[in-house]
Design brief:
alpha/beta; 7-stranded mixed beta sheet; elongated; about 25% helix; Ribosomal Protein L25, Chain P; about 550 residues; Rossmann fold
Amino acid sequence: MSESLNFIEEIIQQDVAENKHQGRVLTRFPPEPNGYLHIGHAKSICLNFGVAQKFGGRTNLRFDDTNPEKEDIEYVESIKDDIRWLGFEWDKELYASDYFEQLYAFAVQLIKDGKAYVDHSSADEIAQQKGTPTVPGTPSPYRDRSVDENLELFENMKAGVFEEGECVLRAKVDLATPNMLLRDPLMYRIKKDHHHRTGDQWVIYPMYDFAHGQSDSIEQITHSICTLEFENHRPLYDWFIAQLGIFPSHQYEFARLNLTYTVMSKRKLLQLVQEGFVKGWDDPRMPTITGLRRRGFTPESIRDFADRIGVAKRENIIDVSLLEFCVREHLNKIASRFMVVQDPVRLRILNYEEGKTEMMHIVNNPENEAAGARLIPFCNELYVERDDYMEIPSKGYFRLYPGGMVRLKNGYIIKCERGVSNPHTGELEEIQATYFPESRSGQDTSGLQVKGVIHWVSAAEAVNVELRIYDRLFTDESPDGHEDKDFKEFINSDSLKVIPYAKAEPNIINAQQGDRYQFLRSGYYCLDADSRPGHLVFNRTVTLKDAWAKKK
């Protein structure tokens, strides 16, 4: 391959060249169905599925459903939906629970080999027995139980004889190793919760470190790719496989995604939901895939983002502006340009025939000729943005003021005559102007030159729409990076602004779920699921330019 490869792709390329595993490449994505996936998981999805595709391999989707207390079919379905939305399809849909019988048999084998034992110590006692990183662990008083006794006790654990917390199964590894994870780690614990797939069949469940590597091996995964926090787990991953003499799957670690102006911890994201800082897991301010999707991000932009940040061996922090850049770049190519006035004030064209309507031609997307064009109505009464008028213009102001001229986008050049304000409040109620008939866009013979161009909508045919102006949820680059402060102290109070009655051009009524728009001079928007006939709601995905760069 001519293009540059990341270090994982280099490993796989070499393995394929050496005909390791007969040249076969099989990866897996192993989420626990205990919540919604976020942008960090999206990076892992793109990596696992992407490298498999690149080398002609396959990817399994395997749910790590070994903790029935926190898992639910709702999360299973949402995860599958997110993966498909990102543009990937798995080879086999599997569950760790598919292997419960096999994993139990593996545990029995380790007991028979004198490599595992049932421990009746409490959780606190086990923690003490493990010692510290500098002090070796001490053996449990139950460590030297006979094989027969351990087999009987483990069978009783499976049969539900013991209660939760009464005993566990531990591997007999090494109490002196500096790696704390190898100091007789837990293999099984008792959980008498209902499982979303196996029901009440099992009351003992394998721990992650025992289930994960063995599941990889059962599936004959060639490249088990995970994030750096599991690097210290790799020796235990290899130990179980070696002791059992099973297919030698191998684990490779890469740096997880850390993103500015957000939090990635499931626990902290759950706090935001439960404490009402956001309106659910799919709130457009959340870094969840479902939240990004609702906000208007495209799968193409997220895949582009994952590709741009690359795959590193060291932890780093990625500026969220790169993610915003990626979606801005993609939306610029695909989004239709629409005119929507957020803070409308009436513009009356005094010399335009009352009752007359012209249809103005407007290109849907100048970046994409195939997107075609549409017609919008023009008449003597329009809506324009309130801040497109100043009674006394400041230096460099090229919009409407008494005597000032602008072009109405895809319409005529107009000259502002005056602004009419409410005598009691002083609020601008109407702008009066005259137009130049020879200045129509595409047919301009007026010879007039103007610097300002503003958008507008016909007052008679404008459609009321609700705009939800989303911004970053936190004001701090690293909201959870302060030891002395709670991350919620950095919540951005201006992260959502609702404009209930913006005025949009009439073509907006044809908007469909999944459509993306550039609202001229404002940003990129998408239709929200809260929309209903007669009440369209649009979410701002991103601004036209990086507004935050100016704040730094």
